[in-house]
Amino acid sequence: MKIWTSEHVFNHPWETVTKAAMQKYPNPMNPGVVGVDVLNRHVDTQGRLCSNRLLSTEWGLPSLAKTLIGITRTNTYIQENSVVDPKEKTFELQSSNISCTNIVSVDEKLTYRPHPQDPQKTILTQEALISVKGISLSSYLEGLMAKTISANAGKGREAMEWVIRRLNTEIEELAATAQATIRIPMAAAVTEK
Amino acid sequence: MNSVGEGCTDLKREYDQCFNRWFAEKFLKGDRSGDPCTEMFKKYQHCVQKAIKEKDIPIDGVEFMGPNKDKP
């Protein structure tokens, strides 16, 4: 489930931004990222570069907190998967925290592509997604909604059938009554339906 | 930038230099000629695998394969 999205425009062409994004760390704005490793990388059959990277981050805990919580290591790890498509000019990255108790995880997805109105610019779309136990929350909810919608749609169709049957019955009863009073013209009109 | 494995940083830097050059000068320009960094990557990857095991980092769904193998 998307909980946050944002868009940003860089006044640089897509190739420049992509090269930079690939070498994003280290940088002074992200001092917490202390290590970047490529776990795997290959060019797929469609000519896209697929990479799997591990980001090591370190964050300072006050020593009292360390004593209380008993954490000695303050490293967290982020696993990042990315695809660069040089033909379509897209660079898509998805990253998520690695933890031993992956009940709720927050994933981030970034897409860099040329700005549709200005090829000298690049547009970055960022999304944050939440999943519960590896199942995307949105698919869980969407699944629920889809079931409800289809159940309602089914009910709706049944309801229509019922109403049509009821209307037909009313017409027939009306016809029978009419036949008894006004003979041929009404009967002809009703049976013509 | 360092590697997660302290002993792998030099291998990582060598590989990164090679990769960044190939990425900018060949790959992004549509040049499909082979990746010249494969040997360097193998050495680096081997080192990182060991470091990850040693540090007990739970990597999800990664198969450590050489760059020449086809992904299933």
Assembly classification = heterodimer
Radius of gyration of chain A: 31 Å
Largest chain interface and its two residue counts?
A: A-B, 32 and 34 residues
What letter string, H or E per element, gives the SSE order of chain A? Answer: EHEEHEEEEEHH
The helix-and-strand class of chain B reads mainly alpha
Number of domains of chain A: 1
Order of helices and strands of chain B: HH
Q: End-to-end distance of chain B, in Å?
A: 32 Å
Mean pLDDT of chain B equals 83
Assign the CATH superfamily of chain A.
START domain
Helix fraction of chain B?
40-55%
Shape of chain A: elongated
Q: Tell me the distance between the termini of chain A.
A: 51 Å
Walkthrough of the structure:
The complex is a heterodimer of chains A (193) and B (72). With 193 residues, chain A is of the alpha+beta class. Chain A contains 4 helices and 8 strands. In chain A, helix 3 packs antiparallel against helix 4 (184-192). Helix content of chain B is 49%, strand content 0%. Chain B has helices at 9-25, 38-55. The radius of gyration of chain B is 14 Å and the shape is elongated. Residues 62-72 of chain B have low confidence and may be disordered. The A-B interface holds A 15, 18-19, 22-23, 25-26, 34-44, 47, 49-50, 52, 54, 56, 77, 79, 84, 86-87, 98-100 and B 1-5, 8, 12, 15-16, 19-20, 23-24, 27-30, 32, 35, 41, 44-45, 48, 52, 57-60, 62-65, 67, 71.
Keywords:
heterodimer; A: 193 residues; alpha+beta; Alpha-D-Glucose-1,6-Bisphosphate, Chain A, domain 4; eight-stranded antiparallel β-sheet; 38% strand; elongated; B: 72 residues; mainly alpha; disordered C terminus
Compact summary:
Chain A is of the alpha+beta class. Chain A has helices spanning 14-22, 63-69, 137-181, 184-192, and strands at residues 2-10, 33-43, 49-58, 75-85, 90-98, 104-114, 122-132, 135-136. In chain A, helix 3 (137-181) packs antiparallel against helix 4.
